[in-house]
Design a protein that fits this description.
Elements (H helix, E strand, L loop, with lengths): L1 E5 L2 E15 L2 E14 L5 E12 L2 E9 L7 E2 L4 E10 L3 E12 L5 E12 L6
Antiparallel strand pairs: 1-2, 2-3, 3-7, 4-5, 4-6, 4-8, 8-9
């Protein structure tokens, strides 16, 4: 598990290899990840946007920006958490992702970024 805390917000990531499949005459490697965002601060916060840098051993890095996570903009009260699962397709059996969430603190209206730790993907057969 990969974990990082920024301004009282703890982000933990668990990854999994989901399998391979052919699409457009190319092999693709499917990876899943589950992220838990815990509010260790005393203030209520809302996740409003995300930024991802995706690294694939066989392709140039890709950047993805978007609103919320999986169609939601969760509000996380002190002591509570939000967990969601998503996935990533790579051309290689090895890769990584990192990024940040854009958050708003409801107490003081401060906007801030919460770092998502770099987490690695690797198919079991790709590592010796």
């Amino acid at each position: 598990m990969f974990t990082q805390v920024t301004k009282g917000i703890k982000v933990s990531v668990q990854t999994s290899f989901e399998g391979t499949f052919f699409k457009n005459y190319r092999m693709h490697y499917a990876f899943g990840y589950t992220i838990t965002i815990e509010n260790l601060s005393k203030d209520t916060v809302q996740l409003t946007a995300r930024h991802w840098d995706i690294f694939d051993a066989l392709k140039d890095p890709e950047t993805v920006d978007g609103e919320g996570v999986i169609g939601r903009k969760p509000v996380i009260k002190p002591g509570k958490s939000h967990t969601y699962s998503s996935g990533c397709l790579l051309a290689s059996p090895i890769g990584a992702m990192k990024g940040h969430y854009h958050m708003v603190n409801f107490t003081n209206a401060e906007e801030f970024e919460v770092e998502i730790p770099t987490f690695k993907f690797s198919a079991p057969f790709a590592i010796n």
